[in-house]
């Protein structure tokens, strides 16, 4: 089946099987390997991307269901000049990553949260990360990074 | 997962037609079906997506009834029902996690009727009506046991109509790994009486706790439930909790819901 969508602002298309998952289309066909497959059972959140502005687990969405959609992946998060976005910079500043495997999903979930709620409290952040698992158990600094990003004045503009 | 043909109709009638093909299966948000297909618990020949039918996506307050389209996501219900029916919005806001709520739909949840799902409790306690492509089904007739509903082959949940209660509350004791309720209670105070629905507890799926309803209808207060308990017989027992524990939780969640309302 033919599928076409917009990924990180650019048109992307390809031929897929009905059963091809969005995460495999992104990784194997578009070579956007920043989106990770952690569990493949929609538990871990390493594959979170935005689909039409909403966070989804790309391992639990068929590529054909993303036909015509706007997809944003971790590769689309940096600023146009290549510098890190506010959230990414906060993760670096606050050591919000250890092995880094969960980080793309964490950053995409954080971005989805701050888009809806630019100034969440710690409890809200922890609740929102319910579906993102860090097996290094580095949650404390991830939450600190997101809190710090939310205090950055420019976050509301992103 | 096994491969399949995929169709995405834009009208209910086209979807019904597509579902009449042999071995066809409706796909909503896919948050249960796709994981089931990955482990080959399900292997339909044709998947019919219900996610692109504009008539099935809406949240609309219509007098004292809240109408929700069958393909409306949990995230949309959480956002848009908050004014008209806050207890239902709160239930939707606590299903799964944010990414699951972006995809999962009310119609998919009801058609699946997982014995631990949140929505069946809200639908049953609200005395909602499930509108399908061919008829209207009352909540009391819709849920027929674990993963079993009144839906026929190929029948689609087009809309759910919730009579808005005077007051309601959903109390969920979460199983943190699955984010389903270990046991949850939805208590609704209607002008005609109280309704109490328990999910996550029974081997027969969601059920009404009639004794509690009678007590709360005559006196809507926590003390009215004194001495009442859910029978542990027929409750789910697994590594997360015994049947006695779940029966106890059903009582605790109901009392908390009542306490929050009064």
From TrEMBL, chain A:
PROSITE patterns: 2FE2S_FER_2 (PS51085). InterPro entries: 2Fe-2S-bd (IPR002888), 2Fe-2S-bd_dom_sf (IPR036884), 2Fe-2S_ferredoxin-like_sf (IPR036010), 2Fe-2S_ferredoxin-type (IPR001041), Beta-grasp_dom_sf (IPR012675), Diverse_Oxidoreductases (IPR051452). GO terms for molecular function: 2 iron, 2 sulfur cluster binding; metal ion binding; oxidoreductase activity. The keyword Iron applies. Residues 1-77 form the 2Fe-2S ferredoxin-type domain. The keyword Iron-sulfur applies. Keywords: 2Fe-2S, Iron, Iron-sulfur, Metal-binding, Oxidoreductase. This is Carbon monoxide dehydrogenase, small subunit.
Automatic annotation (TrEMBL), chain B:
The keyword Flavoprotein applies. Keywords: FAD, Flavoprotein, Oxidoreductase. Residues 1-167 form the FAD-binding PCMH-type domain. Pfam families: FAD_binding_5. One of its GO terms (molecular function) is oxidoreductase activity. SUPFAM superfamilies: CO dehydrogenase flavoprotein C-terminal domain-like, FAD-binding/transporter-associated domain-like. It comes from the Bacteria. InterPro entries: CO_DH_flav_C, CO_DH_flav_C_dom_sf, Diverse_Substr_Oxidored, FAD-bd_PCMH, FAD-bd_PCMH-like_sf, FAD-bd_PCMH_sub1, FAD-bd_PCMH_sub2, Mopterin_DH_FAD-bd. This is Carbon monoxide dehydrogenase, medium subunit. It comes from Oceaniovalibus guishaninsula JLT2003. The lineage of its organism: Bacteria, Pseudomonadati, Pseudomonadota, Alphaproteobacteria, Rhodobacterales.
């Amino acid at each position: 089946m033919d599928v076409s969508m917009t990924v990180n602002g650019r048109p992307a298309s390809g031929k897929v099987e009905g059963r091809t998952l969005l995460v495999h289309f992104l990784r194997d066909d578009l070579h956007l390997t920043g989106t990770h497959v952690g569990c493949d059972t929609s538990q871990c959140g390493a594959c979170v991307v935005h689909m039409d502005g909403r966070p989804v687990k790309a391992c639990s969405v068929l590529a054909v269901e993303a036909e015509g959609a706007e997809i944003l992946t971790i590769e689309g998060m940096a600023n146009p000049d290549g510098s890190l976005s506010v959230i990414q910079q906060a993760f670096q500043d606050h050591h919000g990553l250890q092995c880094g495997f969960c980080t793309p999903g964490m950053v995409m979930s954080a971005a989805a949260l701050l888009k809806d709620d630019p100034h969440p409290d710690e409890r809200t952040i922890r609740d929102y990360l319910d579906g993102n698992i860090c097996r290094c158990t580095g949650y404390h600094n991830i939450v600190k990074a997101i809190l710090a990003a939310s205090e950055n004045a420019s976050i509301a503009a992103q | 997962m096994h491969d399949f043909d995929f169709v995405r109709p834009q009208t209910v009638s086209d979807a019904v037609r597509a579902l009449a093909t042999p071995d066809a299966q409706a796909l909503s948000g896919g948050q249960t079906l796709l994981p089931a297909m990955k482990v080959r618990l399900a292997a339909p020949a044709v998947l019919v997506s219900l996610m692109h039918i504009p008539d099935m996506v809406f949240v609309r307050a219509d007098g004292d009834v809240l109408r929700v389209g069958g393909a409306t996501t949990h995230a949309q219900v959480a956002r848009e029902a908050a004014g008209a029916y806050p207890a239902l919005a709160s239930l939707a806001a606590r299903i799964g996690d944010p990414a699951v709520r972006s995809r999962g739909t009310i119609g998919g949840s009801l058609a699946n009727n997982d014995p631990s799902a949140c929505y069946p409790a809200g639908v049953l306690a609200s005395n909602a009506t499930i509108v399908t492509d061919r008829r209207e089904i009352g909540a009391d007739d819709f849920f027929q046991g674990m993963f079993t509903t009144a839906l026929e082959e190929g029948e689609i949940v087009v809309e759910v109509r919730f009579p808005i209660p005077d007051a309601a509350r959903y109390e969920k004791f979460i199983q943190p790994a699955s984010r389903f309720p270990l046991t949850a209670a939805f208590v609704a105070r209607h002008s005609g009486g109280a309704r109490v629905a328990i999910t996550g507890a029974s081997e027969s799926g969601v059920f009404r706790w009639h004794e509690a309803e009678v007590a709360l209808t005559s006196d809507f207060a926590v003390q009215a439930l004194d001495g009442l308990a859910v029978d542990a017989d027929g409750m789910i027992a697994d590594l997360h909790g015994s049947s006695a524990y779940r029966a106890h939780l059903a009582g605790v969640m109901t009392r908390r819901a009542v306490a929050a309302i009064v």
